Amino acid sequence: MDDKRVPNGIILTEAQKKSRRQRSIAIALALGVLVVLFFAVTIVRGPAVLVRPI
Amino acid sequence: MSVIDHNAIELPPRISEADVADYIALLKPRVMSLVIFTALVGLLIAPGHVHPVLAFTSILCIAVGAGASGALNMWYESDIDALMSRTANRPIPRGRVTRPEALTFGMTLAFFSVMTLGILVNWVAGALLAFTIFFYVVIYTMALKRWTAQNIVIGGAAGALPPVVAWAAATGSLSVEPLLLFLIIFFWTPPHFWALALFRTDDYARAGVPMLPVVAGPDATRLQILLYTIVLVAVAFAPWPLGYFDAVYGVTSLVLGAGMLTLAISVYRRREGSGALRATRKLFAFSILYLFALFATLLLEVVAHAVAPSIW
Fold first, then answer.
1. Cβ(B252)–Cβ(B204) under 8 Å?
2. B249 contacts B239 by C-beta, under 8 angstroms
3. If you count DSSP H runs as helices and E runs as strands, how many of each does chain B have, helices first?
4. CA-nearest residue of chain A to B52?
5. pLDDT over 70 at B12, yes or no
6. Smallest Cα–Cα separation from B225: which of B179, B176, B262?
């Protein structure tokens, strides 16, 4: 009896896995920058963070 | 009767192999670098002090907004990009990124850049950035580009707005100086892009884009390049006698303007053979240097004022 199991669903190639990992890291970095940016501006502006020209 | 064809072949879902470089290419990095530079000048010549964190945030948002415009432009123009040698290697025509992926990417960046600029800096700048993206994507890309030979004249307004957005980010308002920067880029755009269109006429004709050389012919384009260059040189020089920018800028503007005018005259006079092509390519290359040097001079004036205010 063949012991190998046929996996269900889509199997990603190595190239697809690599590019997906790259994209995930880029999204994580972008979100990180956004969080740091909001934090830094809140510190810089202090209590006046919501006071700005409309 | 069912509208679904149950005998149709079910295709497996497409798995993207697009890497980060493909998405960076969607942002049009070379255009973005010019946007960053002109916005930086707009921000630094603005009166008053801007905190470095807010300055960085502003430039980042403007850069991302410009990138979003590029991605949305590539989403809409992928059909004609595939037909032109200059753009056939872009991620969508190459099959690296699909149109819906580019649309989602562009819309996400546009949303976050505008909202971040509005929330963290001010809503005048945020609204102006939103207008810039709208103008580039909807007015220029969707409406004008395939409809009129004046596409890049009117559409040039989108490329001219970044220093205005940056000024608004620094001051929360608008003034004459950023509008002068706007006018310089606005009148620089036609000679720059028509020079490119002159040596890419076949490309544009194949794609059905009504650029001026395709619609009106090369001779009419050469005349328009010369006329717009005369206006550009005058507009770029005007801020000095009007008292907005210093003498160093005025003299630099004159010298660079003389170079630009000489090359535009050369393009107008040389109409045949390799000499004509060389003249057009020279004007195209010099026009990039012209704008960069003009804005770099303004940047140097700001630095000089900060370092040695008594001398300046």
1. no
2. yes
3. 14, 0
4. A44
5. no
6. B262
The answer on pLDDT for A1 being more than 70 is no
Cβ B19–A16 below 8 Å, yes or no? no
**Per-residue tokens: B249:** 């800028």
Cβ-Cβ contacts under 8 Å for B116 (sequence gap 6 or more): A34, A37, B57, B61
Q: Does the pLDDT of residue B266 top 80, yes or no?
A: yes
Q: A5 vs chain B: nearest CA distance in angstroms?
A: 21
pLDDT at site A54? 53
The dihedral sign for the CA sequence A33, A39, A40, A42: positive
How far apart CA B97 and CA B79 sit, in angstroms, is: 13
pLDDT higher than 90, residue A3: no
Model pLDDT, residue B63: 98
Angle at B57 between CA B52 and CA B62, to 5 degrees: 125
Q: How far apart are CA B38 and CA B298, in angstroms?
A: 10
Q: What is the mean pLDDT of residues B239-243?
A: 91
Closest in B15, B51, B172 to A53, CB measured: B172
Whether the per-residue pLDDT at A5 is higher than 70: the answer is no
Residue from B136, B73, B77 nearest B105 by CA: B73
CB B129 within 8 A of CB B62: yes
d(CA B304, CA B84): 45
- By Cβ distance, the residue of B16, B20, B122 closest to A52 is B122
| Residue A26 amino acid letter | A
